[in-house]
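User: Good morning. I'm curious how NDP would be positioned relative to this chain. Could you predict the structure with it bound?
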Amino acid sequence: MGKQAVTVIGLGPMGRAMVTAFLAEGHPVTVWNRTASKAGELVAQGAVTASSVEEALAANELVVLSLTDYDAMYAILEPAAHALAGRVLVNLSSDTPDRARAAAAWAAGHGAEHLTGGVQVPPPLIGKPGSATFYSGPREVFDAHRETLEVLTGTDFRGTDPGLAAMYYQALMTIFWTSMLSYLQTLALAGAHGVTAAEMLPYASRAMTMMPHFLETYAPHIDAARYPGDVDRLAMGAASVQHVLHTNRDAGLDTALPAAVDGIFRRGMDRGFAENSFSSLVEVLKQPAG
Ligand code: NDP
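Assistant: Good morning! Here's the predicted structure, ligand included:
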């Protein structure tokens, strides 16, 4: 039997990598993109360009969406909603859990299934071993298309709530963006002292690789809402964060990031957590800032 045919809508760097991976495994692929010229290289590889969204939807049951966000999905699919019945939308676009749930209901209203996906690797790792994507939505729909989706990445089904894959994705992107921004702050500080990114690389990498140790230590405490200050006290952390803030300020840098960190520590101190561990700040983060 031939490989399952797929439609891919959205040809940014991620969508293009996905089309290439499908074609390399022998899947017939129909593509559509707002900016049609982005399909050129893919057509040379064997993809077929649909001349309209309706045609792209009509071509295949399985429709992979790789768009900037869900607004882009509505902009593309609303005008063609009459062509959605019977389609399986695998939405690998980033957005919030609430928007994923709303999209699943919207798709169902048009007779389509919706699987939410959160891709955890950049485009060069699509189709490579060790990559993974979170999925959530109807289990039987996921199972029916799992083999084809595994051409792109490994799959990790998180549950039937359509918001779950988006929640896992955004939770981990919270780590990604804040830690990568902290890396840039580190490099700005090093650079202000004449130290290059290349010189900092082994030290920054070592700091990152120590993180799982802290995660493992804190996870059971956080689940139990116990924050023993036996190894680290929040008061010590608050003083340390002040030193970080002042070091960045003295170097003439933008201090928005360390100042935000300092603000969170101060709120923990104000809540009386001085003798608890740093992990007690999770209680501060559970509510909007006052
Ligand atoms: P891009 O933002 O570069 O892709 C944008 C795609 O969305 C293009 O096809 C673009 O069309 C289309 N688009 C955006 N707005 C509209 C609109 N209003 N109407 C019609 N089409 C629109 O994203 P990537 O390809 O990099 O990523 C796709 C998804 O994958 C994103 O949700 C991203 O968060 C996620 N992701 C990306 C990773 C990465 O490293 N790139 C890693 C993991 C996940 P046009 O070409 O016409 O502009």
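The chain has a mean pLDDT of 97. The radius of gyration is 23 Å.
Let me know if you'd like a different ligand tried.
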